[in-house]
Design goal:
Layout (H helix, E strand, L loop, with lengths): L25 E7 L4 H11 L6 E8 L5 H8 L4 E3 L7 H14 L4 E4 L8 H6 L4 E5 L11 H8 L3 E8 L9 E8 L6 H25 L2 E4 L2 E4 L3
Parallel strand pairs: 1-2, 1-4, 2-3, 4-5
Antiparallel strand pairs: 5-6, 6-7, 8-9
Helix pairs in contact: 1-6, 5-6
Length: 226
């Protein structure tokens, strides 16, 4: 797997990248900090055959007590914990990168990973890190996105799966799913309905990336017709 460039080096507008020359199955590494419902949804999609040609190589958490890491252990998956509190970002990330490499991870999936990645981390997996965000980016990046959207008074909320670049909640968008805001909603009920769509969106996004049948042109994720 590599980044292909059909244009002279340095051309960002026409940069293309894909996973065409990837290994089979695609080995994903999941990074999480909390309950891990997105991780569990991905795991269930693989188990149920909705997500083919993909396997979970390792689940990593920066929080020892994270519910997601407990669930991963119970499922018998390889796990690792690197507690990040009090550590320099670059040193912590070096441990995580080494672990991902040791497990031969092709694609990193951030699933509620509450920690910014260092530039070194992003450079170690170029165009190979996905994140899920509970808002329709570029609206409402950052923390408490569902509440931000609700308080703003939007009529349509949603979620985004995107490639990670050096800016917060910013890289090329792979999948978005919209969620209408109901008159009866509060921020909590809206977040719950967005979460249901997140679980669908992450599987869709991984399937699209795993197919290798796409290009990233500038910041646009474009599916290729066969
Ligand atoms: C999700 O809302 C996700 O969009 C955000 O963090 C939350 C993680 O939830 N980045 P879970 O741990 O996957 O249940």
């Amino acid at each position: 797997m590599r980044a292909d460039s059909a244009e002279p080096e340095g051309s960002t507008q026409t940069r293309t990248a894909s996973m065409t020359k990837r290994r089979m199955p695609l080995r994903i590494g999941i990074l999480l900090s909390g309950r891990g419902s997105n991780f569990l949804a991905i795991h269930e999609s693989i188990r149920a055959g909705r997500l083919k040609g993909v396997e979970i190589a390792v689940v990593i958490s920066n929080v020892a007590e994270a519910g997601g890491i407990k669930a991963a252990k119970e499922l018998g998956l390889p796990t690792a914990v690197f507690v990040s509190r009090g550590r320099k970002r670059i040193e912590h990330d070096a441990n995580v990168i080494a672990c991902l490499r040791a497990h031969r991870v092709d694609l990193v999936c951030l699933a509620g990973y509450m920690r910014l990645l260092s530039p070194e981390f992003i450079a170690a997996f170029p165009d190979r890190i996905l994140n899920i965000h509970p808002a329709l980016l570029p609206a409402f990046p950052g923390l408490d996105a569902q509440k931000q959207a609700f308080d703003y008074g939007v009529k349509v909320a949603g979620c985004t799966v995107h490639f990670v670049d050096e800016h917060l909640d910013h890289g090329p968008i792979v999948v978005q799913r919209a969620v209408p805001v109901l008159e009866t909603d509060d921020a909590h009920s809206l977040a719950e309905r967005i979460l249901v769509e997140e679980h669908i969106a992450y599987t869709e996004a991984i399937a699209q990336v795993a197919s290798g049948n796409y290009e990233v042109r500038g910041r646009c994720f474009v599916k290729r017709s066969r």
